[in-house]
Amino acid sequence: QVQLVESGGxxxxxxxxxxLSCAASGSIFSINDMAWYRQAPGKQRELVARITGGGSTNxxxxxxxxxxxxxxxxxxxxxxxxxxxxxxxxxxxYCNADISPRxxxxxxxxxxxxxxxxxxxx
Length: 122
Description:
four-stranded antiparallel sheet; 122 residues; elongated
């Protein structure tokens, strides 16, 4: 059973920083793209940042220059370093990854974490 477990959310003042982590566990053959999404109250879920298996990254315009996505392939973990946080960054942040479990090696499915709350106070 493959799972994604996020950690690192919390309450921070505007201008502060947080680092989110998301670890994939279970019987994993391979992981392709990993990403962070967020969903604010009353809004649709949106892509924040994505990193490919090769390390290429892309970001939402709203977070460029403030957020950095990275991954540790040995630990099957993706990170999101969030600096210069703003109240509008307040949302539930979800980890997302395209994973091939060992039982169906070579076939990828998209998995989601349970979400972690990030609240930025003004």
